[in-house]
Amino acid sequence: MTSLPDTTSDDPLAVGSARHTARWQLELSQAVRSSSELLNRLKLSPQDLPELLPTADATDFPVLVPVSFLNRMQTGNPRDPLLLQVLPQLSESFTIPGFVADAVADLHARRSPGLLHKYHGRVLLMAAGACAVHCRYCFRRQYPYSEEPRRLEDWEPAMAEIESSPEIHEVILSGGDPLVLNDHRLAQLCQRISRIPHITRLRIHTRLPIVLPSRITTELCSLLTSLPLQVLVVVHANHAAEIRNDCLAALQQLIQAGLPVLNQAVLLRNINDTADAQEQLSLSLVNAGVIPYYLHQLDRVAGTQHFEVPQSVGQQIISDLQARLPGYAVPRYVQEIPGATGKTPVLHERT
Ligand SMILES: *Cc1c(COP(=O)(O)O)cnc(C)c1O
Ligand code: SF4
User: I need a surface site. Which of 66, 170, 222, 327 has the fewest CB within 10 A?
Assistant: First the structure.
């Protein structure tokens, strides 16, 4: 018998007894976990990708790609924009000045276990240490998740800190990906947060509706809509080809449940660094009912330099979008500056 994830654990990759394994947990356990399998499934050979990092499967950030996301990639295309987000490349191992482990100064903002206070009026809870996909450009790939709380009791210092900070009105569940928590864990955490009187909004930052759409279920939607809080969902898609099939259905399920859904993307070289690619992404999102919220300049995290796009290119893309699209379809082009209490716009070049 194959091993299935233990639903009593908040680690979806943990293997244990198989009571009530949800379909998304089964799919996560079946995700692709090596470059060679990824390439096999796409009928590509390593010769098609000379930059492929040979030691990839030995790193501490191994390949992880759910089959649903893989199914939206184009077979035989070594330049597929979804593949390039998840495939390790040789340049990950280069050391480049200016690209550092904690580029966004997360560790400086840590207030208590699992709690980051970086932004005015909002706090981030590192609700889960795991993700359902490993994005090679990830700004938190080096974050020490294993030190963060797991059980509800372990969250109490963070809850006490929020309780004693009446200026905080919004809790953002981040990670990792908070939706890798099972419904029981997630409900416990959300209900605990909703008992803090000055918290009025709960935001969930998640890539699961995009990479593992089966996570979005009727049960999850009722869990979120039954909270005495305004809940918002911020998803993360970078390319129009992600917003298809089961992903499109999952986004519509969230929206039909009454949850506002916003998207944040990262500007990524050879993936979405043209006005056409961004226009297609914005149109796919708004046609699905999702508002394009942010386009992030890449955070300069070690090993991600091959994804960087110059700011002048990003600025030109945004002005092209402004000429082509309604205002609500143009994301805010922003960067994270350590120590700033909100996002900093990458300002438009004046001519
Ligand atoms: C910017 C950012 C936030 C806060 O976003 P706002 O919408 O500006 O409040 C939360 N989490 C992550 C990971 C971010 O990058
Ligand atoms: S889903 Fe988000 S946190 Fe997880 S690897 Fe991708 S970018 Fe990083």
Answer: 327
Residue nearest to atom 13 of ligand 1 (CA): 174
268 close to ligand 2 (CB < 6 Angstrom): no
Q: What are phi and psi of 345, to 5 degrees?
A: -65, 140
Amino acid sitting at position 316: Q
- Which one of 343, 344, 346 would you pick to mutate in the ligand 1 pocket, going by the greatest count of ligand atoms within 8 A of its CB? 343
Cβ atoms of residues 157 and 112 within 8 Å? yes
| Nearest Cα residue to atom 3 of ligand 2 | 176
116/255 Cα distance (integer angstroms): 28
Quick one: CA dihedral 227, 232, 236, 242, positive or negative?
Answer: positive
Question: How many helices and strands in the chain, by DSSP H and E?
Answer: 11, 12
Task: Find the 103 Cα to ligand 2 centroid distance in Å.
Answer: 15
Question: Does 135 sit in the ligand 2 pocket, CB within 6 Å?
Answer: yes
Q: Could you tell me which of 40, 22, 95, 31 has the C-alpha nearest to residue 62?
A: 31
Closest among 138, 199, 212, 200 to 174, alpha carbons compared: 138
* Nearest ligand to the C-alpha atom of residue 131: 2
Alpha carbon distance 32, 21 (integer Å):
19
Mean pLDDT by 10 residues, the chain (351 residues): 42 50 96 95 91 71 95 97 94 88 77 88 93 90 69 93 97 94 95 98 98 98 98 98 98 98 98 98 98 97 94 98 98 92 79 45
**What is the DSSP annotation of 150-199?**
-SGGGGHHHHHHHHT-TT--EEEEESS-GGGS-HHHHHHHHHHHHTSTT-
Distance 131 CA to ligand 2 centre (A): 6
Ligand 2, atom nearest to 206 Cα: 1
Domain assignments of the chain as residue spans, ordered by start:
23-93
